[in-house]
Design brief:
Blueprint (H helix, E strand, L loop, with lengths): L6 E7 L3 H12 L4 E5 L7 H6 L1 H13 L3 H24 L4 E12 L2 E6 L5 E11 L3 E3 L13 E2 L1 H4 L8 E5 L3 H13 L2 E6 L10 H13 L3 E4 L2 E6 L6 E6 L5 E6 L1 E4 L3 E3 L32 E3 L10 H12 L18 E3 L5 E5 L2 H6 L4 E7 L4 H6 L5 E7 L5 E7 L3 H13 L4 H6 L9 H8 L3
Parallel strand pairs: 1-2, 1-5, 2-3, 5-16, 7-14, 8-9, 8-14, 9-10
Antiparallel strand pairs: 3-4, 4-5, 6-15, 11-12, 12-13, 17-18, 18-21, 19-20, 20-21
Helix pairs in contact: 1-8, 3-4, 3-6
The structure holds flavin-adenine dinucleotide (FAD) and nicotinamide-adenine-dinucleotide.
């Protein structure tokens, strides 16, 4: 281990995507950098250890038919290797040091760190401080939830080596749907209990209905408007989840595992932000300006903890915003971020960028809209992945693409192509008339945009 100094040019708290990239960048520029991470099992942050990478690996294995216990073992090997690689990425730089311990502010320029191995408390000062501490699962106050041995979060469920027979998922967002698809493919009986009365409430109804029918066909039961009243711990390998429907009818379901996927909250526990005078919003997110500076000008907040969209690529873009303040590169701020695409990794993946049809109409656009069944794309037939629907929304007055939703094989790649076209402000005709390789899912864009007049 490298020796720890009492003072650094930059102190980064948390080993998230933005923070680790910034640590390597600043160290390369000759700054002295300390990166504090509370757990050796979290080098590299949430994405590689407990979120994007392990879940997408497990989803892919499920699609390939690899048995669950084997998949969990392979996943553990993969993330151990990535963890080491991420540690080296920062710590092997001569100007950067990874310090393993829990950081807490003592004053605006000083942080105490309780070292993970010795429990010793050390103090570090830094001219500039970057907070990148992420988010943690939000656990609703459901009676019995604390007593149950079968309640899991996304972090703990993917550590289970045995497949749960009956998985009940509380929530209907990203984690709920990705885990539902994955565990159903591994062979579990899956029920989603979603408090919202509408499935995928932000999506156009035609797209939401297409997703819902595919998940139902995969054997997943979906209860909308389900409010969980109680979890009753059982002694025979199952708990009882008691919930009521919008019509106030009480229902019960048996669960060998219960996944709580009801959102995530900023991770500021123990950080003692008040000692630095850093302000938080009503939900606890750290308030930042368009440069990601907090109200204390030498302290920045990046990644999930600053209340932006919770994606790894947003944390990386937060790095770009901060980098532009310490380099000769053009200034990049939150104001020029533009449209952010996302992909929900169900089978097939569901991806979106820009405005939905209902949003474009609410904003007063005169729209042209087209949809295309995924089955009409030859590549989808080749892949035997014919489920799904594609949709585009175009400004009828300017031919600009307003939004696109792709529920089809490879949509997590295709959506980046559409996003690039939107960013370049291409007319939709560019995507319609581009020569794509064959047979490819991209060719679907010829046909989708070709349906517009
Ligand atoms: C199950 C799941 C699946 C996901 N899938 C995707 C996906 O497919 N694609 C995608 O883009 N996003 C996905 N996300 C979201 C993505 O993981 C997060 O947006 C991203 O990891 C946030 O990174 P971050 O930079 O904010 O910090 P994080 O990576 O969360 O890092 C924060 C680090 O700070 C440490 N820390 C916290 N407090 C302290 C302290 N006081 N002292 C020292 N260290 C501290 C933590 O241990 C942690 O390692 C997923 C999330 C989950 C939960
Ligand atoms: N593919 C990806 O990029 C990906 C994958 C997973 C997670 N993520 C990120 O992680 C974040 C957190 O994911 P998430 O799924 O936990 O949150 P989410 O905000 O996506 O969904 C929360 C869901 O829980 C429901 N809910 C809330 N309280 C409830 C209750 N008491 N009972 C029943 N349902 C309840 C809501 O209606 C909603 O459907 C996401 O916002 C996303 O940014 C991204």
């Amino acid at each position: 281990m490298k020796s720890i100094h009492s003072s650094y040019d930059a102190l980064i708290i948390g080993f998230g995507k933005g923070g680790k990239t910034l640590a390597a960048y600043l160290a390369n520029q000759g700054w002295t950098v300390a990166l504090v991470e509370q757990s050796p099992l979290m080098y590299g942050g949430t994405c590689i250890n407990i979120a994007c990478i392990p879940t997408k690996f497990l989803i892919h294995n499920a699609e390939m038919g690899v048995p669950y216990p084997e998949s969990i073992g392979e996943k553990d090997q993969l993330i151990a290797a990535l963890r080491q690689r991420n540690f080296n990425l920062v710590d092997q730089s001569p100007n950067a040091t990874v310090i393993t311990g829990k950081a807490a502010f003592v004053s605006p320029h000083q942080v105490s760190v309780r070292l993970a191995d010795t429990a010793e408390e050390i103090r570090i000062e830094a001219e500039r401080i970057f907070i990148n501490t992420g988010a943690s699962p939000l656990i609703p106050a459901i009676p019995g939830i604390g007593q149950s041995q079968r309640v899991f979060t996304s972090t703990t469920l993917i550590q289970e080596t045995q497949l749960p027979n009956e998985l009940v998922i509380i929530g209907g967002g990203y984690i709920a749907l990705e885990f539902a698809g994955m565990y159903a493919q591994y062979g579990a009986t899956v029920t989603i209990l979603d408090r919202s009365t509408r499935f995928l409430p932000h999506e156009d109804r035609d797209m939401a209905d297409a997703v819902r029918s595919v998940l139902l066909a995969q054997g997943i039961r979906i209860e909308q408007g389900a409010s969980v009243d109680e979890i009753i711990p059982g002694h025979t390998g199952q708990d009882t989840v008691v919930y009521h429907t919008p019509e106030k009818e009480q229902q019960q379901i048996q669960a060998s595992a219960i996944l709580v996927a009801t959102g995530r909250q900023p991770y500021t526990e123990g950080l003692n932000l008040s000692a630095a005078g850093v302000e938080q919003d009503a939900k606890g997110y750290i308030k930042v300006n368009e440069l990601l500076q907090t109200n204390v000008p030498h302290i920045w907040a990046m990644g999930d903890v600053n209340g932006g969209p919770q994606f790894t690529y947003i944390s990386l873009d937060d790095f770009r915003i901060i980098r532009s303040q310490f380099s000769n590169l053009d200034r990049h701020t939150l104001l020029d971020r533009g449209q952010v695409a996302f992909s929900l990794f169900i089978s097939p993946p569901f991806s979106h960028v820009g405005l939905r049809e209902h949003e474009a109409q609410t904003k007063g656009y005169r729209t042209q809209v087209a949809t295309l069944p995924a089955a009409s794309i030859t590549r989808a037939q080749v892949l035997k992945e014919t489920a799904g629907l594609l949709k585009c929304v175009v400004d009828a007055d300017t031919n600009q693409i307003l939004g696109c939703t792709l529920f089809c094989a490879n949509s997590s790649e295709l959506i980046n192509l559409v996003q690039l076209a939107m960013r370049a402000r291409f007319a939709y005709t560019v995507l319609r008339d581009t020569i794509y390789t064959h047979p490819s899912m991209s060719e679907g864009l010829n046909d989708l945009f070709g349906k517009l007049k």
